[in-house]
Every structure is written in C-alpha cells, then in structure tokens.
C-alpha cells in the first residue's frame, strides 16, 4: 500500500490524533485538520482526544434507538420482501475547512449550471451534438432521453432544481466528481437529522466550534419551487409528490414536506382538469402550481409514459407541456445521470461556460468506444467497472479485489454489451475515524453535496457523508451496508 506522508497516526507518519488510531496510509481528513492548526481545529481535536470508547459506544447506541423511534429509516428490497432499516450513524463527524468548502461549493454550482445548459440544449437546438462535443447517439439513444420534452421551455431554464453531486477525495486529498444525480437525488434528510442527533447526543463536542448550519434546506427548496412556478401566478401552491409508503425513501418525503411546509401527496390525490393540476382537499379541489416530485419519469403519467403505472397522474404531462404546472426535477434530466455522459462533463463545462472544471472527474474509460473497451479488457484486474445506468452500488466490479471468476464474468458482459459500461482506476478514497465495536478505526467515505436551484443556486453546507462500515470496503451505499456521518463545514 502506498504510504502518504500526510497521513497521521500513532506511528511516526504524523501526530497522535486519537489513541490507537491509524489511517493505514490513506489520506485522513482528521490529520488534515491537525496540519492546519486553526483555533476551531485545535478545539475539535482536543475534544476528540478526550472521548472514551465505552462512553462513545453507549451514546451511539442511544442515538441508534432514537433514530429508530423517530422513524428515520430506509427500505431494503430483497427477494420480494421489504425490510425497514436505520441508516447506520457514526458519531465521529467529518470536518471540512471553510476554504475547502468554498472550492467545493463553486465547483458544484459550476457543474449544475452546465447540466442545466446541456439539458436545455439537447431538447432544443442540440448544438453540443452538432458540434461533436458529445456523441449524438449517446444522448439520443439514452434510455432516459425523453423525446416528448423536445421544444418545451421550462421556467427560468432550470431543469435540475435539486442535484446531488457525488464526490470522493483521492490519495492526495483532491476532491473529484464520481457521478451526478440529477433525477431524484436522495439523502438530504439524513444530513439534517444527523446534525440534530449530534446536537442532542454530543453537545459537548458541537458547542462553540463554529459549524455552518444545515437548517435552511427546507425553506431554500420551497423558495426555489416558488421561483420556478408558472409565470403570472401570484401565490403559487407547492406540493411534494411521493410514490407512497412502500418507497425506500418515504421517510425523506415526509421529512421534506414538513420542512418545506407543503402538502405531501400521492398520484391518487391529484387530478388534471382542463390541463391544470388540482389536489383533493377536505374543502374541494385546489390548484397546484409547482410539484417537487420523487417519482421517476416512467411512472409519472400513464398517458405519456408507462401505461401500467398506478403511481402517477393521468394527464399531468400535458399540463406540464402547456406550462400550467412546474415539475422538479424536470422530465428528461436522467440523461445527465448516465455514467457515460458523465465522462464528457469537463468538455461540456468548457463548451457552455468557457471554463475549466473546478472539480475534476475521476479518469473514465468509455467502453462503447473501441479504445476504451480495449483498455478496459486489457486491465480488468486494475480497474473499477460500472454499469452506466445502475445506482446504489449494484453491478460494480472492483478489479483489484475481484476473483478470477468475477473478472471473467464481467469480461463476457463487456464483450456482449460494451455500451453499458465504463471503467475507472481504483481511487484511494480518503478515510475518517469511525467508531467500530468501541474502537476508532479508519473507514472510507464519500460526500454528496446538495445544490438547490431556482432564480439562483445554493449549496447546502456539508452535504451527506456516506461511510463504508465494512473494513476495507469502498462501497458506501446504504443498500450495500454503508452508513453516514454528520458533515461539519467550519465557519473559519
């Protein structure tokens, strides 16, 4: 394993951060705090050093019970059964310096602006395709491209109202973009609830450190929905549309509706009349103008998309097409979620904004291209191979940790359907101290900042830190055994 000189531990590599803690050569974010030496860093590190493992474990168990009692769960689907689970919460926070966050924030906003221009372009003039910036068949043949959206103008030109940009930190501490989530990014409820949990369970760690608040998300999202309401509406009615109680993120839907102060509705609660959308209330029908939807395109309207959908609202697409309702995120944004399209984002940023990407991509080989496929097939044992349309960590091969049988299986899939895959080098993901069975051990983390866009863009300070709780694992997804941490952006 390559040893990084900046990695602190109880060894000679760096300062003693926590008793017995050794980041094992990976970039450690707590060590970066020790090197900075600001007042906030010093205060935080001193508090961390005083924490006792047994006491931490006891308080962590109390926190888990409280999370369950509050109903803060997600649903895992397995063999046609549904299991509600608590998202494991690690009590040791992930900390980001103010200057580092300024860079992340600017990079996320740059990326979201590019996504909005790109999506508008592909549904209108298609200049990026004509100019050869990105292959036309990659976009027009994408399963998430919605031909029905061609020529439709959306309020303010905003297609991606909520974006979750997945970032990782490499062995040198550089933030890199792993993927974009421009359809229905989830997880923001855990950001806010994790902070609440820390404030209740660990006030001695949180108080007077100088941490940016995460309380504004609901009001900011509501304001964005008001900003993009159909023109001429004086007092827009906003609602949150959920698939219902069986959805894995239903807790988050309830949470966000409460934080925004808007009704939570399902498809059966809405009706379309004269190309306008109304919700049923105890006092009769009330028109709705902006909907934050957590239903995928396919199930949104059985008249326009999947005829067998029982979750959506018949006729809502026609109301949308005529400008009588705003949907966030816009229909057809899923093209931007594609992992092959992701590889072209640096070119798209330069094309639309005339700027270099502030947050670089992870090096990516596109298997639909002959050179990318050959390189991937020749180096499978050294690469991470991903299906372009999957999420949640499913279908990924981590070459350096795969068996010969797994490598040969993915080789056959690549040869059979190369367009379905990309490959990337295995990044030495950064680690954070994590409480494991009463001991503080390093675990790999990623970061999902959430950007909300209406008349302007705003990035929630910190975002969701996901942590791979299994020793040595690089997969942070909750569906694959990952957990989360509170993410602190320092104020100075």
Descriptive keywords:
single chain, 492 residues, alpha+beta, Dna Ligase, domain 1, 22 strands, globular
Topology overview:
Blueprint: H1 29-36, H2 39-49, H3 53-69, E1 73-78, E2 81-86, E3 89-96, H4 98-122, H5 127-130, H6 136-140, E4 162-169, E5 175-181, H7 188-201, H8 203-206, H9 217-227, E6 238-241, H10 250-260, E7 264-265, E8 270-273, E9 276-281, E10 284-287, E11 290-293, H11 316-321, E12 326-328, H12 339-342, H13 345-353, E13 365-366, H14 370-378, E14 383-387, E15 397-398, H15 404-416, E16 421-425, E17 431-436, E18 439-448, E19 450-453, E20 457-459, E21 464-467, E22 483-489
Parallel strand pairs: 3-22, 6-7, 6-11, 11-12
Antiparallel strand pairs: 1-2, 4-5, 4-19, 8-9, 9-10, 13-16, 14-15, 14-16, 17-18, 18-21, 19-20, 21-22
Helix pairs in contact: 4-13, 9-10
Protein name: Circularly permuted type 2 ATP-grasp protein
Pfam family, one: CP_ATPgrasp_2
InterPro entries: ATP-dep_Glu-Cys_Ligase-2 (IPR051680), CP_ATPgrasp_2 (IPR025841), UCP005522 (IPR016450)
Descriptive notes:
- By secondary structure, the chain is an alpha+beta fold.
- Among the domains are: 231-324, Rossmann fold (3-Layer(aba) Sandwich); 365-425, 2-Layer Sandwich (Dna Ligase, domain 1), CATH 3.30.1490.270.
- Helices cover 31% and strands 22% of the residues.
- The chain has a five-stranded mixed β-sheet with strand order 3-22-21-18-17. A four-stranded antiparallel β-sheet has the order 5-4-19-20. A four-stranded parallel β-sheet has the order 7-6-11-12.
- Strand 4 (162-169) and strand 5 (175-181) form a beta hairpin.
- The longest helix is centred in the first third of the chain and has 25 residues, at 98-122.
- It is globular, with a radius of gyration of 23 Å.
- The two termini are 34 Å apart.
- Mean pLDDT is 88; it is low at 1-16.
- Residues 93-468 form the Circularly permuted ATP-grasp type domain.
- InterPro entries: ATP-dep_Glu-Cys_Ligase-2 (IPR051680), CP_ATPgrasp_2 (IPR025841), UCP005522 (IPR016450).
- It holds the Pfam family CP_ATPgrasp_2.
- This is Circularly permuted type 2 ATP-grasp protein.
